[in-house]
Amino acid sequence: MTTLTLTGDDEADALLSDNGFALLVGMLLDQQIAMELAFVGPRRLAQRLDGELTPATVAAQDPEELEALFRQKPALHRYPGSMSRRVQALAAHLVEHHDGRAEAVWEDVAEGRALRRRLEALPGFGRQKARIFLALLGKQCGVRPEGWREAAGEYGEPGHRSIADVTSPASLEQVREFKRARKAAAKG
Q: Would you say residue 173 lies in a domain?
């Protein structure tokens, strides 16, 4: 996998680059908080866990203890209770359906729509989150099954629309500006 630069934190970016589960967790946390904070979350969780950040480790955690790890300052999310449950559900799904390997979700998928459906089947991943993650895989991680751009929708297009397009502090700001403009246009 390519070295990602999503957070401005070298250790967090290294973990996201080397650990597919960390990347999925960052994407799951990416709602109602700043993008870079969401993607720093996996590194903070890894530091707090008694063990490696893997689906098996997280799935096996006592739910109350995992929630306590999410609540430690700084909290991993503004909604630590619900997000700890979502991350644990994601981990359990990966253990049950993908042999505990996040990368198995996207490895050996020949067609973009099939990959999007796999992503949509993950707990906490709706259609939009799946499309953004698919774009991230295609644009930055070299995961490009046939038709991946079309399956990712607008997020597969060139531009600065989402975390899939963040490669530097400047591109992060461009994504933020795009989101601000879109929000302003929606308000009319």
A: no
Q: Model-level pTM?
A: 0.95
Domain that holds residue 111: 10-157
Structure tokens at 70: 């999410």
pLDDT 10s digits, 137-158:
999 999 999 999 999 999 999 9
Residue 151 is assigned to a structural domain of this protein: yes
pLDDT tens column, 45-85: 999 997 799 999 999 999 999 999 999 999 999 999 999 99
Residue type at 141 in one-letter notation: C
Rounded Cα distance, 11 and 31, in Å: 22
Return the number of other C-beta atoms located less than 10 Å from residue 86's C-beta.
19
